[in-house]
Amino acid sequence: MKTVKTRCLGVIAMGAILLLPATLALAQTGNGSDVPAEVVERGRYIALTSGCNDCHTPNYSIAEGQVPEELWLTGDVLGWHGPWGTTYAPNLRLLAAKMDKQQWVEMTHSLRARPPMPWFNLNEMTAEDAGALYHYIRSFESLGEPAPAYLPPGETPPLPYVDFVLQ
Ligand code: HEC
After folding, report:
1. How many angstroms separate the alpha carbon of residue 73 from the centre of ligand 1?
2. Residue 45 Cβ < 6 Å to ligand 1
3. At 134, which helix (H) or strand (E)?
4. Is the residue at 143 inside a domain?
């Protein structure tokens, strides 16, 4: 009897050990669902190499990418001023928090936006990559503040802003 019990306990312990790596490989996404850590990592890679940080993270280009990850994709107060008015790269964490993954992927494929947002590049992102980016953006606990609102043409924006002089 004793041996059977010990054996049972052994099996349970083995099961727990086998389950452990799987549990560790899951990352909390902040949206209540667990996704594999490699999906979140893929999303991070896409954010980094597709240039999203260049505009959607404060000071990113000027600081040559040396901005703490806690601030990534929280939007920027730098205005982009041109014939289209003044645009501000919005906080993507706040945007993603309002959507489920499917809505995010659909938005990625149908987005139209004013300059200098390269929406025509984003439209080409695969659903898988857009989904991974979504999970990465949702993995942050803190959402940050909204970026300033768009200003129509003819309104001089407050500093700092970039002036596009096209002719
Ligand atoms: C060159 C700067 C720049 C880059 C690079 C850039 N964005 Fe943007 N993005 C903007 C600006 C500015 C806006 C606001 C456009 C407007 O007001 O119409 C914007 C808007 C958006 C919107 C629409 C937000 C909304 O509230 O409707 C999404 C989504 C978005 N960007 C995602 C991305 C992603 C994902 C990447 C990387 C693949 C990226 N952007 C790269 C500047 C940029």
Report:
1. 10
2. no
3. helix 127-138
4. yes
Dist. CA 75 → ligand 1 center (Å): 9
pLDDT string in tens for the chain (167-residue length): 445 454 544 444 444 444 444 444 555 555 656 899 999 999 999 999 999 999 999 999 999 999 999 999 999 999 999 999 999 999 999 999 999 999 999 999 999 999 999 999 999 999 999 999 999 999 999 999 999 999 999 999 999 999 999 87
Q: How far apart are CA 137 and CA 119, in angstroms?
A: 18
Domain span at 39: 35-163
10 in any annotated domain: no
| CATH (domain of 91) | 1.10.760
Interatomic CA distance for residues 104 and 92, integer angstroms: 11
User: Which ligand 1 atom lies nearest to the CA of residue 122?
Assistant: 38
Residue type (1 letter), 32: G
d(CA 142, CA 165): 37
C-alpha 4 to ligand 1 mean position (Å): 62
Atom of ligand 1 nearest to the CA of 46: 38
What letter would DSSP give residue 164? -
pTM (2 decimals)? Answer: 0.87
